Fold MFS transporter.
Amino acid sequence: MTDDTALDSHGDEIPAHPSRSAPNSTGAAGRSPTSPPTPSSAVASAPGGSWRRLSPTVWILVLARAVNKIGAFTLPFLGVVLTVEFGASLAQTGLILAVFGAATIPSRLLGGQLADSLGRRRTIVLGLTGCAVAQLWIALSDALWSAALATVLLGLAFEIYEPPSQATIADVTEPADRPTAYGLLGAAMAAAGVLAGLLAAAVSHFDLRWLFVADAITCLACAIVVALALPADRRARRTATIAAVERGRSRAAGSAADRGRGVEPKVAVWRDRRLLLLLASGTVFATLYMQLIIGIPLTLLDQGLPESGTGFILAVSAVTLILAQRLLRVRGLDDFRSIAIGYGLLAAGLVVTAFAHSLTVFLLATVLWSLGDLFLLTRYLTQASGLAPDHARGRYLAVFGLSWGIATTIAPLTATQLLKAAGPEGLWLASAATAAVLASIQPWFRKQLAPAAR
């Protein structure tokens, strides 16, 4: 326990100085956890926070996830490993990766449910351990059927730790500071991604299976950091109360009394129209993102470029995300303007990718689509977390996170089939057109999500 923390009546650590800025009674800090977000929250917040204001819990989680990210380079290589190491055809590879994606859907839902019931820390450790077991199984497989089963297990464990990770950050940060907090997570993972890309480029010259061994080791290392350093899980019925203390938010007396008795209003997550709309939009983005992850290595293979090129692309993407972090703090850019800019940059990068024939041009394209991802990833998370009441945040983020499970199911099929039917140009130009359409309809999304700002 540090000087900045204290113990509550049940022995759990809580910050002695929950917030370095006074709550605004008319802004997001003063609203009820079940009321819609205000303009200063997810839907219309302007990032301007400082990393120094973030809770120690955020920093611990960011450190742990960065350790994991150093070895998290296997997914872009999974299709290549199935094709090169196990002799799978392009159609078989696409099918196996699609099943992997489908398996991540219940994985994400389970992670959200466990985050709100079992606890954030325990759920993160469980998910990371499951990923490590599956990665080692893939590395030790000697036949395609064994690697396919291990891939399914990896999918079932792959998303468990995401909802509790995202919910933990949202639990201990003000809505206006969440873009900064998620940006810090992105920056740290990008920094680790530089090492990951270079390590992947080096290891890929040898047996690609060693990539999965390295990933398993970093998963276990991350689990150990989380288990030892992250604050102990609180009782599920008291999560909202402790989170409010950590953020220094004032609550109405009647509502506080209800939480003290462990009474929380029931939340029909699937009936929140705004969340479902956000899920649909996020799914399209996640599909474009996953097509990049899956399609870039296969495109390099089609162009006759070395497998190590994927590692360099990952490293350049990570460096771009680090150097461009200050763009997240530009005032006057709310969620919708940021998302429109992000889709515009993503579309530009995809067009360049469509006509790339050398690693240099692929790296130029990487800078463009990475800048787009920077805006999109942080803003979508900010919107989703802002819609959720404190005691249901894990479930809200899990439902929104289904976009990645759906995308990981769809993208292997669309990427491989478009590559087969239309070549790299067809795949990336179609993706660029989709991104351009999403950029153009952000004013419509603003109107549809307007009730969240009332």
Remarks:
- Strands lie at 5-7, 13-15.
- The chain has a mean pLDDT of 75.
